């Protein structure tokens, strides 16, 4: 007897006609044509059952604050930071919590069940930290929220950041963050990477740094991050986010840099939506778009996870909370258009990001948590193309969100009476 049984489903690895039996909060059986008694049975009708989407890079303290105190007119990273600096002193804990919870509702509806959010610690009041620690507890039954102590104004550049970051970690923030390219000098940036890695090593924590989020090809703090990762024995616990300067770096230098990142067992977290929108603002034509070298990182054996970064805040006026939007843009921007490529980018918003965050018992295997998303698509490549409805979002064996299938009714002589977008994949492409 199962509590929940999903039958006639397709899995991301290509298996079809699969059944998944759930008892309590765990997957207890998977098999072809699996049947059995259950309190509830979901007939997936051949649609894709996926592990949850995982967002490894977000800013939940700023989300849904678009227009406060005003709009970003230049569209640049620096004006966004300046706007956030104006808004930050006016923030209240209640307002941050309200916006964050609304965003979590949206993310969950899209099948996102884990988010790593950077939390600004540049304001010594730590209002953002208090708010998101409370949010973490509220959403815990539905979504795993991992928090990064992030000195937005620079670890050394902001006079209060050193002490505030340590207090944030003492309060229960999970990960050490940084922004070395925003320090006053390259040397100060290098020193900040060393100091922050030392803190992480001393406390046994993970590291996730905004690194080289610039068009400057000489911004090379990722090299320092890799070096300090090895020095402090942090292999497998460090991620470099954005890495946009790599887009503009000399290819010979990159040919030396990628093996160093791989040796350090670092992960890379590009954020395609934001990187393409913000970078290259000072260019005329040819115009750089700033997205880091995703195919080359993958080819070097480096784990790549794709992040949403921002949704309707001072840096980015768009965003839906849907990580398939992120993967969809990445396909175009990287020209990774083959079926294999699209499957690789699907992993970047699911299993890879789960590994970066260190999620336990994640995936569609017996013994894992019964966390999964049923999509109105037949396989991962089609899911990226369609960004389809999430028919069911299941967390710990319970359905927490449902969306009706997208079906268009047609009234045309000699044509079908209805249309399902998932029925258009040409045969032989799966």
TrEMBL record:
Location of the region described as Disordered in the Swiss-Prot/TrEMBL record: 411-430
Entry keyword set: Hydrolase, Metal-binding
InterPro entries with a match to the protein in the record: Amidohydro_3, Metal-dep_hydrolase_composite, Metal_Hydrolase, Metallo-hydrolase_Enzymes
GO biological process terms on file: cytosine catabolic process
Domain Amidohydrolase: 40-400
GO molecular function annotation: cytosine deaminase activity; isoguanine deaminase activity; metal ion binding
One Pfam family in the UniProt entry: Amidohydro_3
Record-linked PANTHER family: CYTOSINE DEAMINASE
UniProt protein name: Cytosine deaminase
């Amino acid at each position: 007897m199962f509590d929940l049984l999903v039958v006639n489903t397709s899995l991301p690895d290509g298996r079809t006609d699969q059944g998944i039996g759930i008892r309590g909060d765990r997957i207890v059986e998977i098999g072809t044509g699996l049947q059995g008694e259950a309190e509830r049975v979901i007939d997936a009708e051949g649609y894709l059952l996926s592990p949850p989407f995982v967002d490894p890079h977000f800013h939940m303290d700023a989300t849904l604050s678009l227009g406060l105190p005003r709009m970003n007119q230049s569209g640049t990273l620096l004006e966004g930071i300046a706007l956030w600096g104006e808004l930050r002193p006016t923030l209240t804990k209640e307002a941050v919590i309200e916006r964050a919870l609304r965003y979590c509702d949206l993310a969950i509806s899209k099948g996102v069940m884990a988010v790593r959010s950077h939390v600004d610690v540049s304001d010594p009041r730590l209002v953002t930290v208090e708010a998101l620690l409370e949010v973490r507890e509220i959403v815990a039954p539905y979504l795993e929220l991992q928090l990064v102590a992030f000195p937005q104004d620079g670890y050394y550049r902001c006079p209060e950041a050193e002490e505030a970051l340590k207090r944030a970690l003492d309060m229960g923030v999970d990960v050490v963050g940084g922004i070395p390219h925003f320090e006053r000098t390259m040397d100060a940036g290098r020193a900040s990477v060393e100091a922050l890695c030392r803190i992480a090593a001393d406390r046994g924590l993970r590291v996730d740094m905004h690194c080289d989020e610039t068009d400057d090809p000489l911004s090379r703090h990722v090299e320092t991050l890799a070096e300090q990762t090895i020095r402090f024995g942090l292999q497998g616990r460090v991620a470099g986010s954005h890495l946009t300067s790599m887009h503009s770096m000399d290819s010979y230098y990159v040919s030396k840099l990628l093996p160093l990142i791989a040796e350090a067992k670092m992960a890379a977290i590009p954020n395609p939506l934001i990187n393409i929108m913000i970078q290259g603002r000072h260019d005329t034509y040819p115009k750089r778009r700033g997205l880091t070298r995703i195919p080359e990182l993958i080819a070097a054996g480096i784990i790549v996870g794709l992040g949403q970064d921002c949704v309707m805040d001072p840096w980015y006026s768009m965003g839906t909370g849907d990580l398939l939007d992120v993967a969809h843009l990445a396909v175009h921007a990287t020209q990774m258009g083959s079926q294999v490529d699209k499957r690789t980018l699907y992993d970047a918003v699911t299993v890879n990001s789960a590994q970066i965050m260190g999620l336990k018992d994640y995936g569609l295997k017996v013994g894992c948590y019964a966390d999964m998303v049923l999509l109105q698509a037949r396989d991962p490549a089609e899911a990226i193309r369609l960004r389809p409805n999430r028919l069911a979002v299941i967390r710990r064996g319970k359905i927490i969100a449902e969306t009706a299938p997208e079906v268009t009714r047609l009234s045309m002589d000699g044509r079908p009476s209805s249309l399902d977008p998932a029925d258009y994949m040409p045969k032989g492409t799966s």
